[in-house]
Amino acid sequence: MSSRIGVPRQISSTLVILGLIGTVIGFIMALSGVDPEKAGDVAAIGPMVSKLIDGMAVALYTTLVGGVLNIWLNINVNMLAGATVNLITEIVAVGERHAGP
């Protein structure tokens, strides 16, 4: 039972990495809409700012989702690990009571 706890713990770590990858993708999206040559054109600034905001939203949401899911899964992993230890302790105690002196 204890060995199976490693899988959710690995998923939890992977969620943080995926959140960071999403952040990088969001920044790439944000910066891909910026054209320095058109920065002086008033009509082009609106679409560039819109693309910048959309990319930043992706970056922030993926960071938030990865972090929140990591915290949630870590809490569950810790509860599962504690419950596993308690179950094993109780099984050993019952076995010792039945074994007698």
Automatic annotation (TrEMBL):
Keywords: Cell membrane, Membrane, Protein transport, Transmembrane, Transmembrane helix, Transport. Pfam families: MotA_ExbB. The keyword Transmembrane applies. It is found in: Cell membrane; Membrane. Residues 5-90 form the MotA/TolQ/ExbB proton channel domain. It comes from the Bacteria. The chain crosses the membrane at residues 12-32, 52-73. It is a multi-pass membrane protein. Its main location: membrane. Signal peptide: none annotated. Belongs to the exbB/tolQ family. This is MotA/TolQ/ExbB proton channel domain-containing protein.
